Give the backbone structure.
Amino acid sequence: MQDLLQVTIDQESAIAARDAEIAIVQKKHQRQIEKNGERIATLNTQIEGFYRLNRAVLELDGKNSVQLACGLVGLRAPTNPALVPLSEKWSWERIEKRLRRLYKARFFHAPKPPGLDKVKIKRELDGDHLAEAGLALSVEENFFIELNRLAKSVAIVEAAA
């Protein structure tokens, strides 16, 4: 039992020593990591702004993206668009009342206090019926950047050669 106690204490001491060294390394690099993170966020915002402003010129052949040497940038439509109020004048409470008047309990979950079954609404109602109920599908495209890390690696290797 004494051996188990001693090995357990040794184990805990080794873990504590390792964690202390990790904390020192993390602290040493934290400032640069935060600085890089801020720069990445700024550059992403700038690239997205440029892309959105120049979308008509950049998008060729009906593609919603542009392949560049350092990566791919573009916009993606959501595969499952969100159900959103048609405008600010439509609250969810008002939408629920309208749907209940138009379709009775058809689009309400049964067991709990009835809440909207948004999946069923999106599946069964078209644009006109959604608008009549004060709803719309959000088809806002999401900006994306896919960096080509391989291109940078190749350039570094070629520069070193």
